[in-house]
Amino acid sequence: MTDIRLSVNGRPIAGACEPRTHLADFLRDRLDLTGTHLRCEQGVCGACTVLIDGAPARSCINYAVNCQGAEVTTIEGFGGDEVMSRLRTAFHEEHALQCGFCTPGMLVTARDIVLRLPEADAAQVRTELSGNLCRCTGYAGIVRAICRVLDERRGAAPVSAGRLGPVGARPGASVAGARPAMTEAGTAPAAAPGTGELGLGGRKPNLETALSFTVRRPIDEVWAVLGDIPRVARCMPGASLSAPPSDGHVEGRMSVKVGPIATNFAGAARIVREEAERRGTLYGAGRDGLSGSSARAEVTYALAPTGPDATRIDITLKTVLAGPLAQFGRSGIVKELMARLAEQFARRLEQTLEHGAPDDEAMPETSLRPLALIAGLIADKFRSLFRRAR
């Protein structure tokens, strides 16, 4: 059991819970706040949406212990909120609910839209609602209700993105209410090298996997190229540098597209290389300011010769994922996905070693598309089953 302290609907809460307990279960089972509904329990449907430090978050994929020191607001906590009161009235008058199961999460998201995007039109409202599923209404009444409140509030000042706190990922916090300073873009600034803020920082990973692949080049040549950060970044689909590397410190971006979710992680990393052992470790942290997804990672790689002109690269990945993309953290899917990415990386690395750069015309993809890789994996399995059946 782990002791946690947090604020729920303005009330301080202290207690103990299992590390595996999701915030939604903690709210419903321990605090009897059953307005937070559970349906998919994978972060997809949005029924469990609450506010964590002022930002909408899926409570079914955020662990309660990761909300140490956070301020959580559930649908029951908006009793005196003027915007929520207007939305409830509009939902009633515009017939924006039928069974009502999705309504608590829908209202929390609607409030965020009204405050954050005061000039939004109906098309933008529909886009913003894409993470909240309703199987009854067809969304027409919901969109009308939100647009009605937006029209009533035209001219009201929008909420600054800088007020929004980190969504869900608060592991290791020891001081209640402690929050990182926020930039104007609403993302926590990258820590300077050596501060210990990059990597896991002692946190327990919720994703851990290992993989190996071989490139057909001598170990010294592979080791030298892996020390050239810009060349390595070109080999990784979706990765790009936002500034030249300096003393092992790197700042960059990773573009990720998962179905309708498109994110652009910005972050930093520190790379430590051990020359004699031919191994290195990357300590990184990144965040997507739009979706609220965040990741902290430690990636260790080790080289070993498998012949005079071949080198095996062993990689261990440990990650803490939080936010909407955490739903894809199931080990089986991620391990297969990482294996496919390793294949792409190995091919591009070999092209870099042979020609000085990867063949971008042969591999034009500039962003990471996990669903496309998983679809390819499923197709391969069907082909394998078909061959066995013949």
Task: Quickly list its features.
metal ion binding, oxidoreductase activity, single chain, Alpha-D-Glucose-1,6-Bisphosphate, Chain A, domain 4, 7-stranded antiparallel sheet, metal-binding, elongated, Ubiquitin-like (UB roll), 2Fe-2S-bd, 2Fe-2S, 390 residues, 12 strands, alpha+beta
CATH structural fold name of the largest domain? Alpha-D-Glucose-1,6-Bisphosphate, Chain A, domain 4
Helix coverage percent: 25-40%
Question: What is the total domain count?
Answer: 2
- Compute the number of helices: 9
CATH homologous superfamily title of the largest domain: START domain
**What is the N-to-C order of secondary-structure elements (H for helix, E for strand)?**
EEHEEEHHHHEHHEEEEEEHH
- Gyration radius, rounded: 23 Å
CATH architecture term of the largest domain: 2-Layer Sandwich
Q: Give the helix/strand class.
A: alpha+beta
- Main sheet characteristics: 7 strands, antiparallel
What share of the residues does DSSP label as strand, in percent? 15-25%
Low-confidence stretches: 160-196, 359-371
What is the level 1 CATH name of the largest domain?
A: Alpha Beta
Give, in spatial order, the strands making up the sheet with the most strands: 6-12-11-10-9-8-7
Ends distance: 53 Å
Strand element count = 12
Estimate the global geometry from the Cα principal axes.
Answer: elongated
Averaging pLDDT over every residue, what do you get? 78
Domain 2Fe-2S ferredoxin-type: 2-78
InterPro entries: 2Fe-2S-bd, 2Fe-2S-bd_dom_sf, 2Fe-2S_ferredoxin-like_sf, 2Fe-2S_ferredoxin-type, 2Fe2S_fd_BS, Beta-grasp_dom_sf, CO_DH_gsu, Diverse_Oxidoreductases
Keywords: 2Fe-2S, Iron, Iron-sulfur, Metal-binding, Oxidoreductase
GO molecular function, one term: metal ion binding
